[in-house]
Design a protein that fits this description.
heterodimer, A: MetI-like fold, two-stranded antiparallel sheet, 13 helices, 75% helix, B: 347 residues, alpha+beta, Rossmann fold, OB fold (Dihydrolipoamide Acetyltransferase, E2P), five-stranded antiparallel β-sheet, 20 strands, 24% helix
């Protein structure tokens, strides 16, 4: 086995080059001005202060709120879905889980363009409404279209971890709860729900993290004026060219994510 | 004794497999009743129907004379000890045992008192705050028993509860279960495939095979008076010999006539005779009517297992005396050692 260990080295080198170095550069850029000239480093906290300006702070608040709403909806849809799937026999379960993940086989952009066609003012849904004699509804470029896009994209990441923890659960635990006098609701709340909490926590963390850092979906379904953290970072790097400020936002986002994961971990442990 | 549970003609199919083919059984108060049989005989299904986890296709379950077939498990006055204990992994020992009382919203003080009493009964004082997943198999077993008994059920159902324990702890738990049953004074219905366990603990043994009850009786009845070939061969070891019941108290096999204690089989009826290996004595061939040659001698610890080949068949004998291979010997037994039963398939 020993000589195989050496095979891991190229990956270590690539990980270092592709992950550690960029991370280091982001932190470095976040705390400097005109940091493009590596030899003349001017350290400053101005970039971080700028994030606190109302314009940008609002973007953070909006992103976090949208992430929370998306996560909440994913949980409300995902838990019952995972629960129902876990009640089928194993071969059927595998098939159903595959069905849940099938949308992910299609490119994210294509899926989002599909939603645009469906939701547009003269899109498929509105044309159907008009045929039925109802007045069309504006759905594109609203919170609705963005949340819809986010939920549809991230739902599998909620369903899969919850399903995993539910399907691992021993069926006889539920029978034991019934046997000891618990009705269906009591057994679900005190046994099933408690034992599936690790899956729920994992799902929440994954969906929330992806929802607050996404930029393609809000850009396409929310339009140009719909700015979330991801869009802000993208525009700072691509169109504005202020790499220092972009790095500062990325840095703060990373810190928020780390804190969120810590909190959820604590919550998970506290529950057991 | 009062009849507590009555099973009436229960049948159950799983897909196209017949698991129960008409089970009729009475269970009495304070009785330790064991359902004994090989795997797939329907004993666990019978227990699960009593608990309410399975529904019988036809037939009735009466409890105190009332039909409970339609009641969900949580409304039945029975509690179950599961095969793999099914303890709640996210609760400590105390909360596991208190689960049923908490569901019924019992008084906190009362819960504490009852759980402590249960912990004492199963010998786990001071274990309340332990994590159940870190207990040994035997300790988990005790928690499972305490968790069921704390609800003061009228009947405790035990589904092969000792199956996962090693031999020594098994023996100890057998004695303790019997002791607990006497102390709490309720009915135990116990499922096992282990005949020794069944014989040593039960008041009544119900031998099952292929979804049917083969025999119901006390452990000594089941052992000494097996009703058919299945019971005779499943419980202990036996020599089963085709024979003819010549008349009451007289049976013929291996070309000889033997006095016996059985009657009521009619005259010249084909029957089968059970001779337990420990009831056969090896004697001088001069003094015996069945003679043969020792073919195999195996040391079994407490006794030797000796195979004696006669002209017609091979007999198995259990004895503490050594006999050498190849020796010509005779076999002797008394009238009370001959157990006559109907041959398989004729009843």
């Amino acid at each position: 086995m020993k000589h195989f260990k050496k095979l891991v080295r190229p990956y270590l080198i690539w990980s270092f080059v592709l992950i550690v170095v960029p991370l280091f550069l982001i932190v470095l850029y976040a705390f400097t001005v005109d940091g493009n000239a590596v030899l003349t480093l001017n350290f400053t906290l101005d970039n971080l202060k700028k994030v606190l300006e109302p314009t940008y702070a609002n973007v953070f608040v909006k992103s976090l709120a949208l992430g929370a709403v998306t996560t909440g909806i994913c949980l409300l849809i995902g838990y019952p879905l995972a629960y129902m799937i876990a009640r089928f026999k194993e071969s059927t379960q595998n098939l159903l889980i595959m069905l849940v993940t099938i949308p992910m086989w299609i490119n994210l952009l294509l899926r989002t363009y599909a939603w645009m066609n469906l939701l547009a003012d003269n899109g498929i849904i509105n044309r159907l409404l008009m045929k039925l004699g109802l007045s069309p509804v504006t759905m594109m470029y609203t919170d609705f279209s963005v949340v819809l896009g986010l939920v549809c994209n991230f739902l599998p990441f909620m369903v899969i971890p919850i399903h995993t923890s539910l399907s691992k659960m021993d069926r006889s635990l539920i029978e034991a709860a019934y046997d000891l006098g618990a009705n269906k609701v009591q057994a679900f709340r005190q046994i099933t729900l408690k034992l599936s909490m690790p899956g729920v926590i994992n799902g929440i963390v994954m969906v929330f993290l992806m929802a607050i850092s996404t930029f393609v979906i809000p850009k396409l379904l929310g339009g140009g004026q719909y700015v979330l953290i991801g869009n802000l970072i993208e525009s700072q790097f691509i169109s504005v060219g202020d790499w220092n400020f972009g790095s500062a936002i990325s840095f703060i986002l990373a810190v928020i994510i780390l804190i969120a994961m810590r909190v959820m971990k604590r919550f998970d442990k506290g529950d057991e | 004794m009062n009849k507590l549970i009555e099973l009436k003609n229960l049948t159950k199919n799983f897909e196209d497999q017949q698991v129960l083919r008409g089970i009729d059984l009475n269970v009495y108060e304070n009785e330790f009743l064991t359902l004994l049989g090989p795997s797939g005989c329907g004993k666990t299904t019978t227990l699960r129907i009593i608990a309410g986890f399975e529904e019988a296709d036809s037939g009735q379950v009466l409890f105190d004379g009332k039909d409970i077939s339609a009641l969900p498990p949580y409304k039945r006055p029975v509690n179950t000890v599961f095969q793999k204990y099914a303890l709640f992994p996210h609760m400590n020992v105390f909360d596991n045992i208190a689960f049923g009382l908490n569901i019924r919203k019992a008084d906190k003080q009362e819960i504490r008192r009852k759980v402590e009493a249960m912990l004492a009964l199963v010998g786990l004082e001071g274990f309340g705050s332990r994590d159940v997943t870190l207990l040994s198999g035997g300790q988990q077993q005790r928690v499972a028993i305490a968790r069921a008994l704390v609800n003061e059920p009228k009947v405790l159902l035990l589904d092969e509860p000792l199956g996962a324990l090693d031999a020594r702890i098994r023996k100890q738990m057998q004695m303790e279960l019997k002791k607990i049953q006497r102390e709490v004074g309720i009915t135990f219905i116990y499922v096992t495939h282990d005949q020794e366990e069944a014989l040593s603990m039960s008041d009544t043994v119900v031998v099952m095979n292929e979804g049917m009850i083969q025999q119901i009786g006390s452990p000594t009845d089941i052992y000494n008076e097996p009703e058919n070939r299945f019971v005779a061969s499943f419980i202990g070891e036996s020599n089963i010999v085709e024979a003819t019941m010549i008349e009451d108290y007289l049976v013929g096999f291996d070309g000889c006539r033997f006095e016996c204690v059985d009657r009521g089989f009619g005259e010249m009826e084909p029957v089968e005779v059970v001779l337990r290996p420990e009831d056969l004595d090896i004697v001088d061939p001069e003094n015996a009517r069945i003679r043969g040659t020792v073919r195999q001698v195996t040391f079994k610890g407490v006794h030797y297992e000796i195979l004696v080949e006669t002209d017609i068949r091979t007999y198995m004998i259990h004895t503490t005396d050594y006999t050498e291979i190849g020796k010509h010997v005779g076999l002797d037994f008394g009238p009370e050692d001959i157990h006559v039963m109907w041959p398989m398939g004729s009843y």
